[in-house]
C-alpha cells in the first residue's frame, strides 16, 4: 500500500510553463545569450536551472556569470508569479484533499528552491497538504538521480514499497524507478506520452481521477 507520496511541482501539480519560458528567455537575452527555444525550456523544466541552463546555451559562462544568470531568472520568475501564471491543473486540489483525508503523507520533491516552492504552494492555497517540501537545495542529488529520493526515504524511515513518485517528466520517473518506489507519470505536463513511456513508469495517468485511483491503492 502506498503511504508516502512524493509529487513534482511544475507540470505535475501546477501549470507554470508560460512563466518558466518567459523568465528563462528574458534572463538569457539580458545576459547577451541567444534566446532558448520554448520546447527546450519546457523539456528541462523538471531539473534545477543549475543543470538546465548550461544545456540551454550558457555552458561557456564563468561561475560568476552563471550565478548572475540564475539570479536574473529567479527575479523574473518572482515578478511574474500570480494566479494567472501559476495554476493548479484541473482536479489536483481535490486529489490532494482526498489523499490527505485517507491518511497519506504528501511531500513535494521539486527542482525549485524550497523557499520558491513554499511561496508557490501558498499562492495556490495547498501548502497545508504537504508534510515537507524538498527543494533542490535540500537534496543530495537532483532528479533524475535517485540518490536524493533514496536519502529522504532513509531519513524518514519509509520503505520504498510504501512510497510513490509522481511526475510529468522522465526525470521524475527515472528517479522513482531508481529509488524502487511506485513511479506514476502524468500526461498533462512537459513530456509527451512517448517520452514518458520510454522511461518505463509503473503507471501512466491521463487525468486527476486516475491519479487519485492509482495512489489510493
Question: If you had to describe this structure to a student in words, what would you say it looks like?
Answer:
This protein is α/β, with parallel strands linked by helices and 217 residues long. The protein has 10 helices and 8 strands. The protein has helices at 17-30, 38-43, 49-58, 63-80, 92-101, 114-124, 147-155, 170-179, 193-198, 208-215; strands at 4-7, 14-15, 87-88, 105-109, 132-134, 163-167, 182-186, 203-205. Strand 7 (182-186), helix 9 (193-198) and strand 8 form a beta-alpha-beta unit. Helix 1 packs across helix 4 (63-80). The longest helix is centred in the first third of the chain and has 18 residues, at 63-80.
Secondary-structure content class = alpha/beta
Number of helices: 10
Q: Which geometry do the CA atoms define?
A: globular
The H/E string reads EEHHHHEHEHEHEHEHEH
Mean pLDDT over the full residue set: 97
Overall strand count: 8
The oligomerization state is single chain
Largest sheet: 6 strands, parallel
Question: Helix content range of the residues, please?
Answer: 40-55%
Low-confidence stretches: none
Fraction in beta strands: 5-15%
Rg from Cα: 17 Å
